[in-house]
Design a protein that fits this description.
The protein contains 15 helices and twelve strands. By secondary structure, it is α/β, with parallel strands linked by helices. The strands form two sheets. It has a ten-stranded mixed β-sheet with strand order 5-4-1-6-7-8-9-12-10-11, with helices on both faces. Strands 2-3 form a two-stranded antiparallel sheet.
Length: 467
């Protein structure tokens, strides 16, 4: 079986992770004590992907729960699902990271990392054929960002052939009030660019807007935000957890969605998302689901997809008696209507998948995963905030006092700006540039940027295509 190990780091990561396990346990017929009470063979056929069977009809999540302070762990241990998790897989410190990326990455986190890796190795040994890791964390605080990226780099170093997928919650002033969030975010993104294989970006600001605008919640809290995130995580992973679907493992998902190595940041959306008052007036058919999935207002990343272009996308539909022909027709129709929002040099760049098992409480649902160049707007926002503070060296002393070198700030900023340039180049590329037209008979050929070279008049694609 192709197992996946889930690591949840920091307060946000553990809250999301706990919500995720509650959601998929309900879908697989597993109660809060880990006992199986399912009614269908589908529910248990690929249970081993996320669960380890330790006794007949008894399952334990392949989860490692990590934090630098005991408060979050105490809350999970006091929750109804406490007995679901293996006690040895709780790894926590006592002092916390204090919203400081360097504290989580270099001092407090470094003291705990060996203990965490021992648990990771033990979980890997219990797998028959592990396919990779899934990390839940946030980028705004100290533990999820600092320790999360340290753990990411250590796992990549020790298990280089295994894929690492992250669910990264990006900060927003609408939900949190940590002043140093831009520093923590930029430093984390630097490591995610280099070490993660795929990153599902979830923006607190976008979640907040969905709760207020679509769900009509006057005062949304983290319970509502985490519920939205777990809904999407369930949809993204359903093709990994239930048999016979496209994108049935992490590698296939990556191959279908990542055209270039560094461009592995995804925006996600879920459907149906409707308020309680509107539920009875909404027709949950394929057309309605597809329309909601493509709606920029339902994207859980605060970027307007109309201001960029889709490189690739995947649409996952769940429910009984869903016609694959209807799905393909609807996707083709939407892609034709929005053709200007798709790059022209990747034909048929929407992959569809249909899963017969619907989520709990819904007859049908849809999940949309988009690799879109519009995400650069989100990263640009963090880069601007970062530079406004770093220009005055504000708060930098807190990071340097933990053993961090100042050059790491400039390296992280430079790496993110390079990524923004790459997104822009691929967004602007035409089909002729992408395939690379051969140079003429002259001496110079193209300069690699699609312009005429000095010696010859031929053109070539953008330099990134020809590396």
């Amino acid at each position: 079986m192709r197992e996946i190990i889930n690591l949840q780091v920091g307060q946000c990561g553990n809250q999301i992770g706990s919500c995720f396990w509650e959601t998929i346990s309900a879908e697989h017929g597993i109660d809060a004590r880990g006992s199986y009470h399912g009614t269908s063979d589908y529910q248990r056929e690929r249970l081993d992907v996320y669960y380890n069977e330790i006794d007949k009809e008894k399952y334990v999540p392949r989860a490692i729960l990590v934090d630098l302070e005991p408060g979050t762990m105490s809350a999970i241990k006091a929750s109804p699902s406490a007995s679901l998790f293996k006690p040895d897989n709780f790894v926590f410190g006592t002092s916390g990271a204090g919203n400081n990326w360097a504290k989580g990455h270099y001092t407090e986190g470094a003291e705990l990392i060996d203990q965490i890796l021992d648990v990771v190795r033990r979980e890997m040994e219990s797998c028959d054929c592990p396919q990779g890791f899934q990390i839940c964390h946030s980028l705004g605080g100290g533990t999820g960002s600092g320790l999360g990226t340290l753990l990411l780099s250590k796992i990549k170093e020790e298990f280089p052939s295994r894929l690492i997928s992250t669910y990264s919650v990006l900060p927003s002033p609408k939900v949190t009030d940590t002043v140093v969030e831009p520093y923590n975010s930029i430093l984390s993104l630097h490591h995610l660019i280099e070490n993660a294989d795929s990153v599902f970006c979830i923006d607190n600001g976008a979640l907040f807007d969905i709760c207020k605008r679509t769900l009509k919640l006057p005062n949304p809290d983290f319970v509502h935000l985490n519920g939205l995130i777990s809904q999407v995580m369930s949809g993204v992973t359903c093709s990994l957890r239930f048999p016979g679907q496209l994108n049935s493992d992490l590698r296939k998902l990556s191959v279908n969605l990542i055209p270039f190595t560094r461009l592995h940041f995804f925006s996600v959306a879920g459907a149906p998302i409707v308020s309680k008052d509107s539920e009875k007036y909404v027709n949950s058919n394929i057309m309605e689901l597809a329309s909601q999935m493509f709606d920029p207002n339902n994207m859980m990343t605060a970027c307007d997809t109309r201001k960029g272009k889709y490189l690739t996308a995947a649409a996952v539909f769940r429910g009984r008696n869903i016609s694959t022909q209807d799905v393909d027709n609807q996707m083709h129709l939407l892609q034709s209507k929005n053709s200007t929002n798709f790059v022209e040099w990747i034909p048929n760049n929407i992959k569809t998948s249909v899963c017969d098992v619907a989520p709990s409480g819904l007859p049908v649902s849809g999940t949309f995963i988009a690799n879109t160049t519009s995400i650069k707007g989100l990263f640009q926002r963090y880069a601007t905030q970062f530079n406004q503070m770093y220009r005055r060296k504000a708060f930098v002393h807190w990071y340097l006092s933990e053993g961090m070198e100042e050059i790491e700030f400039t390296e992280a900023d430079s790496n993110l700006r390079d990524l923004l340039m790459e997104y822009q180049q691929y967004e602007d590329a035409t089909i002729d540039e992408a395939v690379g037209v051969a140079g003429g008979d002259g001496g110079g050929g193209g300069d690699g940027m699609g312009k005429e070279g000095e010696g010859g008049g031929g053109k070539r694609g953008p330099f990134l295509f020809n590396k």
